[in-house]
Specification:
Blueprint (H helix, E strand, L loop, with lengths): L8 H4 L17 H11 L5 E5 L3 H6 L11 E2 L6 H17 L10 E7 H6 L2 H10 L4 E6 L39 H6 L5 E5 L4 H13 L4 E6 L3 H4 L6 H10 L6 E4 L3 E4 L9 H5 L14 H25 L1
Length: 316
């Protein structure tokens, strides 16, 4: 079905901007590009909820806002609960005849990896289990960037953060990242996908598909952070492309918890070290003393990629 959904740039370039200029997000931050891609892909009116994090604090500095749509901020952990409450109220108003029955509003919750993988995890799970029709988007920059680059459970093994510093005691974060996308798919909801902003057509097709399903959907989107990842601000899109080319960040979707489709398979899968070289947070992995860790991470990436291809084959 995704292949039959087309993204025509001529249809969206003149759309109304729903995230307007003037926000304080850093130059090269992946988040505003991703949010604009998502909102341009949706034709219906939208209502948004945003968890505390970079996106929230940088777009709503009192007395200004960059949101040109109805927008709610409540707390760090409960963006999914907030938007599911709005969706339930909307349905109730339609049943009572207070709103036109043929009117359609799309409900979206945005959260960073801290608000998604960690603090808001149970709130997201509850909203998915209840079956609310909404889209949850994890803007995944792989750490708590807003509060000082602390590690989260989305932070990859070996990454240097302020709470997993690379040195003589530990070589960066010692745990592997949580398989958030697979955990969301395990809820047997209609649609879950991974995406990245360099492949905007793939991302926007997935948004269109996600908002069209009858029930909850989740997108986990890689969102580079120049400040936390230690990369040049003009390299954001190149870095997400390399993440897909190394299979560190596969682009895939899961329908109804079991049908896997890999949307991009690199012709020549590159070593994950090529991706690490683009970011200062992994610089220590290239010291002779840490060669074993680089090899271990490569083996894990290879294992996960092979499992994903196997899942696709078995579900086709």
């Amino acid at each position: 079905m995704t292949d039959r959904i087309r993204v025509n740039l001529r249809d969206i370039v003149n759309n109304e901007e729903r995230l307007v200029p003037g926000h304080r997000l850093c130059g090269g931050c992946g988040e505003p590009t991703i949010v604009r891609q998502i909102l341009h892909a949706i034709d219906t009116p939208v209502v948004l909820s945003t968890a505390t994090g970079c996106l929230e604090v940088s777009t709503s500095v009192f007395p200004y806002t960059s949101w040109n749509v109805p927008w709610i901020h409540s707390a760090f952990e409960n963006a999914a609960t907030t938007i599911s409450g709005a969706e339930a109220a909307y349905k109730a108003l339609k049943r009572r005849g207070n709103l036109p029955v043929d009117e359609e509003i799309t409900f979206i919750a945005f959260g960073g990896d801290g608000a998604s993988y960690d603090i808001g995890f149970q709130f997201i799970s509850g909203a998915l289990e209840r079956g609310h029709k909404f889209l949850y988007v994890c803007l995944n920059n792989e750490a708590y960037m807003n509060t000082g680059i602390q590690r989260s459970s989305a932070t990859p093994r070996g990454a240097h953060t302020t709470t997993s510093p690379a040195g003589e005691v530990i070589p960066g974060k010692v745990q592997w990242r949580k398989p958030f996308t697979r955990i969301m798919a395990a809820h047997d909801i209609p649609y879950v996908a991974q995406a990245a902003p360099h492949n905007y057509r793939d991302l926007m097709r997935k948004v269109k598909k996600a908002v069209a399903v009858d029930g909850p959907a989740v997108l986990n989107i890689l969102a580079p952070c120049p400040r936390g990842w230690r990369h040049a601000s003009d390299q954001t899109m190149a870095i997400t492309k390399l993440a897909a080319d190394t299979c560190y960040w596969p682009l895939y979707e899961v329908e109804n918890g079991h049908k896997f489709t890999v949307n991009y398979k690199p012709r020549e899968k590159q070593p994950v070290a090529e991706w690490f070289k683009t970011q200062g947070r992994f610089r220590h992995l290239f010291r002779p003393a840490n060669e074993w860790l680089l090899e271990e991470i490569q083996a894990k990436v290879d294992e996960e990629w092979a499992q994903l291809l196997h899942d696709e084959e078995c579900s086709s």
